[in-house]
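User: Sequence in, structure out. Go.
Assistant: Echoing your sequence, followed by the structure tokens.
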Amino acid sequence: MSRTRIAVLVSGGGTNLEALLQAQEAGGIPHGEIVLVLSSAEGAYALERAKNHGVPGFAVPRRGTGRVQFEAGLQAKLEEYGAELIVLAGFLSILSADFVKRWPGRILNVHPSLIPAFCGKDYYGLRVHEAALARGVKVSGATVHLVNEIADGGPILLQRAVEVLHDDTPERLQRRIMEQAEWVLLPQAAELMAEKLGKKER
């Protein structure tokens, strides 16, 4: 069986990447194969994680680089490794509409809230969890969605709710959402799309 070739784009420590790699090794992504990791930051620990799992990883630095040059660097590596599906796993650079148009229905993103809550401009990282706690919500969670060419969002694939506890800090809530939602949903969504794209190619 030919497996869909997956590239994972990261910017930091790579905990979501680790969840994907472990799921793959446990047989949780049978229709896909992670063939490439790209980081928008030099020295990101995510690249070390990729190396530890035998997956090629490269830095394509965003800092000090124009958008066109940066995205051309990403595109070149994606084409070199024959990527067919892109997973944004803690990737903090916003991709242009022109870039996204080259990958219609082939870019997955994870957001640490139950979209449409706490999403959009300036909602990323701990800011999402700070906003959730400030609003006093009882439930938060994570969403995996397809990125489309007209907005950050796109069709929602999977969501998972996580209870907000009375003594939560943004950091504790963030960790629990990663463990109970993001690390579960991302491999599931990658497999869902890998199988779908594999059928489309046949």
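User: And one key feature?
Assistant: The two ends are 11 Å apart (CA to CA).
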